[in-house]
UniProtKB/TrEMBL annotation:
A cellular component term, taken from the record's GO annotations: cytoplasm
SUPFAM superfamilies named among the record's database cross-references: GST C-terminal domain-like (SSF47616), Thioredoxin-like (SSF52833)
Enzyme Commission no: 1.20.4.2, 1.8.5.1, 2.5.1.18
Name of the protein described by the UniProt record: Glutathione S-transferase omega
MF term (GO), any: methylarsonate reductase activity
Record's catalysed reaction(s): L-dehydroascorbate + 2 glutathione = glutathione disulfide + L-ascorbate; methylarsonate + 2 glutathione + H(+) = methylarsonous acid + glutathione disulfide + H2O; RX + glutathione = an S-substituted glutathione + a halide anion + H(+)
Species, as recorded: Pinctada imbricata
């Protein structure tokens, strides 16, 4: 689904590794809209799903690690087991941003949840001071692509509530990181504008998500 952050994770890895693929978009809501052929491939009815030569893999992190193993060119995961564990633990910590981000969105941009979200963002700001250009280090890695969809959505809230969440004076490293990520070909290829995200969100709230928003005939 084009607006799903978890599907975007795998689209980013496919783009980064230049893996030839066909994208099939599905409607996820209402539940009865999910086609049977899709549920046969993933009984959970969730995206992303990868299929190659009759072999099926789902769950975004699993899909991305599968792609890393199958297509080792342009590596995204470290070879050292301890470094790999460190990055996975860091991803779990930073991934918690979805909690305060969703609270901010659902509250309609309240002052309390705004402060909570900004306080959480001090963590990735601090981490970048130790890691380098990216959360993976000097070069982009799997952790960056797995986290990026959520940073992209946090940026959307700046448009929704007309209030910058990550101002440069408070979050200089994060602002530089976002600019760095936005310059990557894979991110450019998979990027959804805040305006498109906002329009899709409005259609979802109305109970009739416009999954075809922005598609060219």
């Amino acid at each position: 689904m084009r607006f799903c952050p978890f599907a975007q994770r795998t689209r980013l890895v496919l783009a980064h590794k230049n893996i030839p693929h066909e994208t099939v978009n599905v409607h996820l809501r209402p539940v009865e809209a999910k086609p049977n052929w899709f549920l046969e491939r993933n009984p959970l009815g969730l995206v992303p799903v990868l299929e190659k030569d009759g072999k099926i893999v789902y769950e975004s992190v699993v899909c991305n690690e599968y792609l890393e193993a199958m297509y080792p060119e342009k590596k995204l995961l470290p070879s050292d087991p301890f470094e790999l564990a460190q990055q996975k633990m860091l991803q779990e910590r930073l991934g918690k941003m979805t909690g305060p981000a969703m609270k901010y969105r659902m509250s309609g941009g309240s002052e309390e949840t705004f402060s909570e979200l900004q306080n959480f963002m001090k963590l990735p700001e601090e981490v970048l001071g130790k890691q380098g250009n990216f959360f993976a280090g000097d070069n982009v890695g799997m952790i960056d692509y797995n986290l990026w969809p959520f940073f992209e959505r946090v940026e959307t809230y700046t448009v929704i509530f007309n209030r910058e969440i990550l101002p440069k004076d408070k979050f200089p490293r994060l602002r530089a990181y976002i600019e760095r990520m936005m310059s990557l070909p894979a991110v450019k290829e998979c990027y959804t504008t805040p305006e498109q995200m906002l329009e899709f969100g409005k259609s979802s709230e109305g109970g009739n998500p416009n999954y075809d928003l922005g598609l060219k005939e």
